[in-house]
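Morning, I've got a small favour to ask if you have a moment. I've dropped the whole record in just underneath, so have a look.
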Amino acid sequence: MTENPNSEAIKSLVVCFGELLIDFVSSVPGLSLAEAPAFEKAPGGAPANVAVGISRLGGSSAFIGKVGDDQFGYMLADILKINKVNNSGMRFDHKARTALAFVSLKSNGEREFLFFRNPSADMLLQESELDANLIKQATIFHFGSISLIHEPCRSTHLAAMAIAKKSGSILSYDVNLRLPLWPSPDAAREGIMSVWNQADVIKVSEDEIAFLTGGDDAYDDDVVLKKLFHPNLKLFLVSEGADGCRYYTKRFKGRVDGVKVKSIDTTGAGDAFVGGILSVLASDINLYEDEKRLREALVFANACGALVVTKKGAIPAMPTKEEVRRILKQGGLGPS
């Protein structure tokens, strides 16, 4: 029996919730924000980056969030549309502007941020503006922590999660810590952990493990399993940048090496990694029960992250499936 291709697309939909903004990236790497002579405009926002990443890889994705009723807001909506991301869940605020972030790239490819959100439109998404039907179609509902910082967006985020959970969606959480946006480190820790036990899939960086555990060793499996792994969790991922990633499930754990490339800009690498793993999980929802398949998916996700750091910007650098296959073939890389 042949399946209706349209029902398949709906079935494997990944809905990404949160912020969509403009990054102004320093045109000269290695200088501070104050020293930068000029900035290049680039679309950004982790959940939107993930949505584009999934779409570029041939998956089905949608984005829910709010931008300003301004030229930047409409530009961002168009960028999603051009990248085949369903943007019907986007809303436009006529009182607040689209969020801006100025980003400088240090000589090692790491970033320095300055945010303009006072308040920005993404913080003002109301529960009444949610597209509940779109959320109900999600195989995976993906979110970060930035949308948990301020009201009314926080309550809207929680309502969207509740709709997704009730509809049987897999809840995917990328912590994406941005400390300068929170009132205090304690508020950040508390806010991030407030939805922790509801997530089915969680992705963190090593720095985020240290932050969330109060300075514990991010490389210690016991720290992860005793302090961060929770009974409802199906898959816990730790991204280690160029070194690859670690994975933890109820039954097994391990690590997968990264793909070696020359880095020029790390912006969006974690989002590309998340997009890579979610694009596989959306069509193989029991992925975390088979270690061999999971490791293969993580090799693929690591390659997605690696390709992004070879170009400037996040959304423009998101790879296609063909580009990922090519880099894996070149490197002769596979699960070790």
